[in-house]
Specification:
Blueprint lengths: L2 E4 L2 E5 L12 E5 L2 E4 L5 H11 L14 E5 L15 E5 L26 H10 L7 H9 L62 E7 L25 E5 L19 E4 L7 E2 L3 E3 L1
């Protein structure tokens, strides 16, 4: 997988006009680093598993079953305050079977790997001799040199009605017009690269970072409820995830932006969460 050299520099991290957890906007300096041009694919993750025999968190017994969280579209209107209305724990779901035990990776080799917990992401990164990006590295890279812009390509979500990322079009979670051509994940690199030559920094799948979750300026505060997965039954450590996914929509979770962020429980894999890696420059 090709890596892109990011020269580093200072940028305005965060955003003032969207969600509270993105504020305040602050100046942050990032040293030079290299980052994967593409998210880690199913094919790449399969090579890791074949070489190491690694078993992901979703494939290990949790109570009476193995499995992971899968998006299931509701059949009637539901409250947007409760992600459990469209997420289901599906026994047998994993990176190998992303939609459940009846599914497979046939035809999805070049799609981003999903159902990857934080521990799984760390294990893959270590195997390839890389690391997970810090939140600042990830956001600096996603901006592609457009300091302060709302999106990775400018300030318009769909300039001239062009779909520039894989996200939800329509009224989430009932209606998806599929204007971008994809209901779930898209093959990596399906949409234009940003100014640094990086693909899929926005939409498609959320990506893990190395940073523990907290709100900027409030290290002890952890009160921003995640919009993109139900909370686990037991309290768990959370890490920052970035980039949004194919489930982010204009009417819900407008987190298809470089500044957007969520706190994800480290032991809760989902069908819209993957990774990419970094290494020193």
């Amino acid at each position: 997988m090709d890596m892109i050299l990011i020269e580093g520099g200072e940028f305005a991290m965060g955003a003032a006009r969207f969600y509270a957890e993105e504020r305040p906007v602050r100046r942050v300096r990032v040293a030079p680093f290299r980052i994967d041009a593409l998210p880690v694919t199913n094919a790449a993750f399969a090579r890791f598993v074949t070489a190491t025999g690694y078993t992901t968190v979703a494939e290990r017994p949790r109570g009476a079953a193995t499995g992971s969280l899968v998006f299931v579209r509701p059949t009637s209107p539901v409250s947007l305050d409760d992600p459990a209305q469209w997420w289901r724990f599906v026994a047998g779901a994993s990176w190998r079977r992303p939609r459940g035990p009846a599914s497979s990776l046939a035809g999805l080799e070049d799609h981003p790997v999903v159902h990857v917990a934080y521990e799984d992401a760390l294990a893959y990164a270590a195997w390839v001799g890389k690391a997970l990006p810090s939140e600042a590295q990830w956001e600096f890279a996603a901006r592609g040199g457009l300091d302060g812009a709302d999106y990775a390509w400018g300030n318009a979500l769909a300039p001239e009605a062009m779909m520039l990322a894989n996200y939800w079009q329509g009224a989430f979670p009932l209606e998806n017009t599929l204007a971008d051509g994809w209901e779930f994940t898209a093959p990596v690199g399906s949409f234009p690269a940003n100014g640094y030559g990086l693909y899929d920094m926005i939409g498609n799948v959320w990506e893990w970072t190395a940073d523990a979750w907290s709100a900027p300026g409030h290290p002890a505060r952890d009160d921003a409820a995640p919009c993109c997965a139900p909370a686990p039954d037991a309290p768990a450590a959370r890490r920052v995830i970035k980039g949004g996914s194919y489930l982010c929509a204009a009417n819900y979770c407008q987190r298809y932006r470089p500044a957007a962020r969520q706190g994800q429980a480290v032991d809760v894999p989902t069908g819209h969460l993957g990774l990419r890696c970094v290494s020193p420059a």
